[in-house]
Amino acid sequence: MPHDHDHSAPGHSHAGHQHAAPPPGGGFSAAFAIGIGLNLAFVVAETIGGFWANSSALLSDAGHNLSDVLSLALAWGAAWLAGRPATRRYTFGYRGATIQAALLNTALLYAALGFILWETIDHLRHPAPVNGRWVMLLAGVGILINGITALLFRSGQSDVNVRGAYLHMMTDALVSVGVVAGGGLVLLTGWAWLDPAISFIILGLIAYSSWGLLRDSLRLGLQAVPDGIDPEAVRAYLLAQPEVESVHDLHIWSLSSAGHDAALMAHLVRPGQADAAWLATLTKGLETEFNIRHSTVQVEDGPLPGGCHSHCELAAPAVSEAAHAH
């Protein structure tokens, strides 16, 4: 729900601007519901088929699809929380829930990969006959279900939560293609060891495709400068404003997993302070140039006694390192 804020306090200034909270479910409620329903039904079918066909590839794929169901549920819940209004205690609302959900989903994913890897090693050591036709049939259904689910989230790539759902589903669709190929090879050759070998390939693909999600989730959790924002460029922009002599305590982070939810806090030394028009121009420029929609600026007419605050003596090296990382 939209809300306005235009606060003034000694030494602090906010330009008046609006922030619209994301809708409940992050605008993807239907996609989450459909994706969870389709994949949960498929997990049940694939698990039964995996045991019946004695296929570790199918069981590993079912295990990963189950983690996707849990991931979709967590992401959906976090997106719903992000759409709730702010309160006196949770002044930013519950947007940070999407960051915590992304971190938890990534941890669950790699825990599931570890369990499936253990099972696959056991199947490789003790190979057993595999029903190749049944494997190909179920994996073919998986291509259809995962492909449809991935398309539901295709338009939300700027949000780590939604991008995680998209990547998981698209990866599963591609993995199912590999399972179909493996089932066909087992059917043609009779080599049972091919099934767990393909399972290893599946696990490797999943781990590789999920690495970027893990990296981005950790960055969000550690309040790193969001991707796409050059902190040195932001500092240069602030220093270029009329009569600004120096910038300190510059912090840029994301309020949620959404790429357009960046926030900024900065202290500017500007003799003569600032008026509302100057601040409005400054914050509008931050939004236009860097997509920073929530900015809080403290304007000072001279250096603070005792120096700057918030360990800002460490800010410049940290910002430079973040700039090189992007």
UniProtKB/TrEMBL annotation:
It is a multi-pass membrane protein. Residues 34-219 form the Cation efflux protein transmembrane domain. It holds the Pfam family ZT_dimer. The chain crosses the membrane at residues 28-53, 102-121, 133-153, 165-191, 197-214. It is found in: Membrane. Residues 226-300 form the Cation efflux protein cytoplasmic domain. Belongs to the cation diffusion facilitator (CDF) transporter (TC 2.A.4) family. SLC30A subfamily. This is Cation diffusion facilitator family transporter. It comes from Hymenobacter segetis.
